[in-house]
Design goal:
disordered N terminus, alpha+beta, globular, 4-stranded antiparallel beta sheet, single chain, 39% helix, 9 helices, 3-stranded antiparallel beta sheet
Length: 210
């Protein structure tokens, strides 16, 4: 449900190839950018996350008040009773959520949309509106095409890093080619973009595609 509601969210990179071809045929002079949220799962403040989920469920579902309250009660329980064992000592995680939890990916995705981080800070930013011609996100990984001065790009990222405490982006940029998840995106001489498969050097190819 969440990925259907969030227009900029990618379920995987398969839809990127036709979309990039259609909407970014003339990217001449642009900068290819990837952004990665640093330690997203463990940096989400509980109350900010809870507020984001409540906002999302209110705006994008038809839950009754009782259903909404039930979901929120479960979320509070999972976040505030999340204990773990380390060196024979039990701890309660006071900030963020465990990466292995089933609710962690949709929770983090809502927070990034969200909190609406994209809704509140990204889409309303004047530099984004003027210079970003493409923006797609897979949970905490973003691919963006920036048409404009690179100093303004760095200013935009700096502004994003000052929006929410403990939430910051790492940036990679190139005017030729860049890796995003399992794709390599290349800006060709004619201004068109080519999307190819990318395998990390550490990939041991232990899975057989069916």
């Amino acid at each position: 449900m969440i990925d259907v509601k969030l227009s900029e969210y990618l379920i995987n990179t398969q839809p990127m190839t036709p979309v990039v071809y259609i909407y970014c045929r003339n990217a001449s002079g642009c900068t290819l950018v990837t952004l990665d949220v640093n330690s997203l799962y463990t940096c989400i403040n509980h109350q900010r996350g809870i507020d984001a989920v409540q906002w999302f469920l209110t705006e994008y579902t038809n839950f009754s008040p009782d259903q909404l309250q039930f979901c929120m009660d479960l979320l509070v329980l999972v976040l505030h009773k999340n204990f773990f064992l380390f060196s024979d000592q039990y701890y309660i995680q006071k900030t963020g959520t465990a990466m292995g939890s089933n609710m962690a990916p949709p929770y983090a995705n809502i927070f990034m949309f969200m909190a609406a981080f994209e809704e509140t800070y990204v889409y309303t930013h004047l530099l984004f509106q003027k210079h970003s011609i493409y923006w797609k996100r897979y949970i905490d990984d973003v691919f963006m095409i920036w048409k404009g001065d690179e100093d303004l790009l760095l200013q935009f990222v700096s502004d994003m890093n000052s929006c929410v405490p403990n939430l910051s982006f790492s940036i990679q940029k190139s005017t030729t080619s860049i890796n995003f998840l399992d794709t390599m995106i290349t800006l060709e001489a004619d201004g068109n973009l080519d999307v190819d498969l990318y395998c990390k050097p550490t990939d041991k190819k232990q899975f057989i595609a069916l």
